[in-house]
Each structure stands twice: as C-alpha cells, then as structure tokens.
What we know:
The protein is elongated, with a radius of gyration of 19 Å. Helix content is 55%, strand content 16%. A four-stranded antiparallel β-sheet has the order 2-1-3-4. The chain has helices at residues 8-23, 41-47, 73-79, 85-121; strands spanning 27-33, 38-39, 54-60, 66-69. It is α+β, with helices and mostly antiparallel strands. It is built from four helices and four strands, in the order αββαββαα. α1 (8-23) packs parallel to α3 (73-79) and α3 (73-79) runs antiparallel to α4. β3 and β4 (66-69) form a beta hairpin. The chain has two domains: 6-83, no CATH class; 84-122.
Amino acid sequence: MLCVNNDFIEQYAYKMYEEINKSSLFTIVRIEGIEGTYLTSQILKKQWDRKNLITKLILQDKCNNCYVVNPDSFGLKFANGEISYKEYKKLQKRDDFKWISFSLLGISFLCIMLYFLLKFFN
C-alpha cells in the first residue's frame, strides 16, 4: 500500500509562516489557527505539532498598525513590502473569486453530465 503525506496544506502554511517571519518588514504578533486557536510568535515553535493549520498571521509595523494576512504567497509579498495592503486585499479577493468560480463550474459540469447520463439511460 502506498503511503501519502496528507498534511501538505499544514506544511505549506507553516513554510509560508517561516518565510514571512524570516524576511518580513513587520513583526508577527499573533498566529491564528483552525478551530480558533491562536499563539504568539514566541511560543509557536514549542507548541506547533504539525497538525495545526495556520490560517492567519497578524503583523504589526513600527507605528503599531496591525495587518491580518494569510500564510500564502500574497501574504509573503505584502510582508516583504512588494505590494501594499490594499493591493494584497485586492489580490486575495481575486484569488477567492477564482476558486469559487472554478468550483461552481466543476459542480455545474458534473450536474450536467449526470443529467445527460440519466436521460440517456432512461
């Protein structure tokens, strides 16, 4: 039997957290996980058990302004100063819309296929 690593998403989110933490212009003040858990950046390495999905990072700049970002490539770009927070939010909305659209198209395609299969065999 073939063993498959099924915690890819958790690993990717943690890798993005590490990249943001390492190269960010901001300070990570809080990490939010799935199920509403949160940790401060200092205790994350001690308590992270590679099963918790990091969903949001709260970044703070030198003026104590806080920004909420996802641990992904757009969050990394914002943390590195490549894009503004407004551009980050715009990219996130566009990406969310893309995933919702592809999901709806896929579901629609499957429903149409099912309809024609049922019509053909009845």
